[in-house]
């Protein structure tokens, strides 16, 4: 490959490209609708497709430095609790007399229902105030939740546990909505909402739309009537909102951003607090921070992971240690007192057992390895002294930690091989495979840095 070709290829890797024509049209209509609601796009944001992250935002004309505002969106552009409370058609579907304090739902679950309600309105009557926004939303998500069955069978417990919990939660909320809405039907088409219109599959997508795209806001800052229709139905606060256009910002671990809803101006403002470069030039992707999140959280909640994520760590469970003992001849030959495992469980010492590339082995992991592998006594008062006393008195648990790391590397390599042997992978399966490979890199780098 010649120099010019190499140069062109390198540039292509970094250059954003226009979004698809369909999305471009939808965004064009969305700009118009948000403009009518008072958004002025002062930072001249544009949506483009970036090679590393897919769709994201940049400014074609403006440079950014620390403390600059990224976007200022009027609260009327958001889908918040105020939007739902002001929508009479939506409220009418929910008969307050049927609310049951033992069958409440989260605000996220209600917003997902609202999205389905608006989508049906749009499809049926072409008359939804959120039509352009709905057209900009993805139709699928890449969380492990959407993996095919054969892919799920190749995933570690850490991913499966979260996926199973999400599934239980989504089905439970869908059932509550079904019971509440009963045979309520759409006035335009006559079909019943929960029977004929909203399938569980659609609810799952709507749920993940809110999961992956909502922003935090302090709902007390919203101007709205004091009378709340939905309050008795909700089991949590309504401190989240969907933010059209603003939800095109991707996440980075190297920026710090703040978000605030100003009660006086009723504007939602995102500010770039700090990032690693002195300046961000036009056409460079503008990122925000979704929080200091490890890859396990990013993949299970948002469907992506970051290579060399600055906030990453790798967590172990007590079951990992039990399995390690069963699989390692030298460790299996020793005897272990069940009081020790009981003590660990009773004191929740198995929580927060992780390794971190910079900080090393977490306190709880060191305590647990010490208790299981080094401690002869099994009397509660001695165990208490060790677990909650001076860290210095621990024996060196490095050999056992190395065994544990090697066990985990072997286990994850097995999952990677199993996924790679599948005839084809869904998008979720492909992301999960990349995540597992990143975990392997992390564990190997940790071992190298700390052995
Ligand atoms: C709030 S949306 C951001 C906009 C999104 N890229 C889109 O096209 O609509 C969040 C989703 O964007 C994707 N995403 C965010 N940050 C990312 C990153 N650094 N790398 C890859 N995907 C990312 C994930 O799919 C995530 O669920």
TrEMBL record:
One of its GO terms (molecular function) is protein-lysine N-methyltransferase activity. Residues 39-291 form the SET domain. It comes from the Eukaryota. InterPro entries: SET_dom (IPR001214), SET_dom_sf (IPR046341), SETD3_SETD6_MTase (IPR050600), SETD4_SET (IPR044429). Gene3D superfamilies: set domain protein methyltransferase, domain 1 (3.90.1410.10). PANTHER family: SET DOMAIN-CONTAINING PROTEIN 4, UNCHARACTERIZED PUTATIVE METHYLTRANSFERASE. This is SET domain-containing protein.
